């Protein structure tokens, strides 16, 4: 899901940077400092999960756990994802610094949206919790893949086919992401509900 350096047009890069800065500023302002450890742990979880790439045809796919970060952290998902992406760019050359804003927005904005869409559903019984967490993980990955494909397509006609391949490659990952998010959220709600803000 990382877009590499030198691919996107300057208007797309600038737009992504502005949106990522705005989201990160809101996220930093809304962080409850009593929960800063949860933000750090989830940023590390995102960092590790998105390092594991599975080759699919000419592309590769990986988990991002955006739904899990979004439903637990809300707006704080922006700074958590930004830190994870920055470390991946510097340490492993995944993505890059000029595309950091676009990559951050593509992953964090769906996470925040899912927080608001599914948070009420996650406060109900166990079955509803799993279904809500699954939907959160699935939709976050769907929207992230859509935004990433749109960023590629907006950068030139030569990237439209690559955008389509990227989106199709992530279709199976959406279901996997939903299942992992469902089980992770259900498990945390039983053993550590304070992490979820329950």
TrEMBL record:
Membrane topology: Multi-pass membrane protein
Membrane-crossing residue ranges in chain numbering: 7-29, 35-56, 63-91, 97-118, 130-154, 166-188
Protein's recorded name: Fused nickel transport protein NikMN
Cell compartments where the protein resides: Cell membrane
Lineage: Bacteria, Pseudomonadati, Thermodesulfobacteriota, Desulfovibrionia, Desulfovibrionales
Main location: membrane
Keywords assigned: Cell membrane, Membrane, Transmembrane, Transmembrane helix, Transport
PANTHER family linked to this entry: METAL TRANSPORT PROTEIN HI_1621-RELATED
Pfam families: CbiM
An annotated GO cellular component: plasma membrane
Alphabetical list of Gene3D superfamilies matching this protein: 1.10.1760.20
GO biological process: transition metal ion transport
Gene: nikMN
Top-rank lineage group of the source organism: Bacteria
UniProt xrefs under InterPro entries: CbiM/NikMN
